[in-house]
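[audit] Reproducing an earlier prediction to check determinism. Same input, same settings, fresh worker. If the tokens differ from the archived copy the diff job will pick it up downstream; this log only records the rerun itself.
[audit] input (307 residues):
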Amino acid sequence: VENMDRSLAFYHDVFGMEVPPLPESGARPFNNPNPRLFAFFDIPGAKERHQSARVAGIRTGVEPMEIQQVDHKTIQLRIQDPGTATLVLVVRDIDATLARVKQANMPIVTTGAKPVTFADGARAVLIRDIDNRFIEIRQPASIPSSAPAGNIVDIRVSIAVNDMDRTKQVYRDVLGFKVEGETAFAAEKAVQALAGLSQAEVRRSRVQAKSSALWLEFVEFKGVDRTPLRMRIQDRGAARLQLRTQGIDEVVKAVKSAGLSVVSQGGGAVPIPPNFRGALVADPNNFFVSLFEPCDGCAPRTPPSTN
């Protein structure tokens, strides 16, 4: 993001998410320089800060990250372009949520600027946030009794993909996700209205990692102009998913064998304080996946002093 404080304020004020308090200075500080983290992201010489916006009872958080002092560009995101990530907030009351969005004067993408209704009874609306990224606000036909008590009951991520079969193969066979909910291309009126694309056809599937509550929803568009995104992690518009792994060197080897790009310096897992090894990978759609594995003393927060 361009300004982390501004982004956190948006998610707190509009959606009621919990964010770290502002210090008396009025701005959250940048982190101390961390060359090993910068090697992981391949952003030598940068300065960065990151904090999370969270919802009580939901493990998945939203982490705005601001990277400065390195070359970057701002990507003009379109919902249909492969690599575009959409945050999906599943809510109890879509109308009340949309009212707060309108009060904050955020752009509404959905045709008619109001929720559309799907065949299963779910209602949804697509907006842009303070950084011009997409957020889908979705109210399902029913809320499970086990859902958190607040308005936001689940968080998901939707990713526009270039080739559904190739994307599923990578997440299933390389990363070990389960795949379900696959559909054929269809010109659904509700989807067309939601995305503001009257000629679009879409097909979908969703994947989930072992022991994770987070669903990734894949959407492939057809019948509309598409331009695959080409981004670096510091570009405004880039997004990443953090995944804890087991046997990270074998995972990185499998990733590279599948033809994916490892962004981290050296093309492999690097040590990251406090005591992790990690590799930043670009998936087939240039959506970034951060692979992490805990390690025993491999990357202390403070490097040992030398004489």
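[audit] rerun output stored. Observation attached for the diff report: The radius of gyration is 20 Å.
[audit] end
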